[in-house]
Amino acid sequence: MKVFYFALIAAIGNAMFVYGQRSSNTAENPFFFLTVTLTVCTSLFFVSTLISKAPTSFGYVQENLWYILISGLGFYITFVGFYWLYTQQGATSYIVYALLSILTTSIGVGLILFQEPFNRFHVISGVLAVAAIIAYGIGQSRLES
Prior knowledge:
It contains five helices and no strands. The chain has helices at about 1-25, 30-50, 60-90, 95-115, 120-145. Helix 4 runs antiparallel to helix 5. The longest helix has about 30 residues, at about 60-90.
């Protein structure tokens, strides 16, 4: 059940991000909103790091630099994708992102790269997610006609 609570926290944070982005005025520079938003986020992480009881180690950064760079690039690509998705298509288009995340993250990273456990119920949930995308596409086509 912990997975639900952790996912809920992430989902609430994502909803807050989308709300802020969709409610803000469009800037001439499409990256300005994201830059300021990420500055706030980075500042909060910096404070969290300082108040954490665990020691901070530059050796950790050296040992994990490659993965830190990959993750940083991933954050960048994600936020640029979110910006274009939400400003061009709206918040309801998130369902398309969700399915693609299932394919790239749950299956690509979790199942294929890390060989995490996967059973028929996970497969069923993936099939249902694809069905949701099909239903979403049908709904969008009816809105546009």
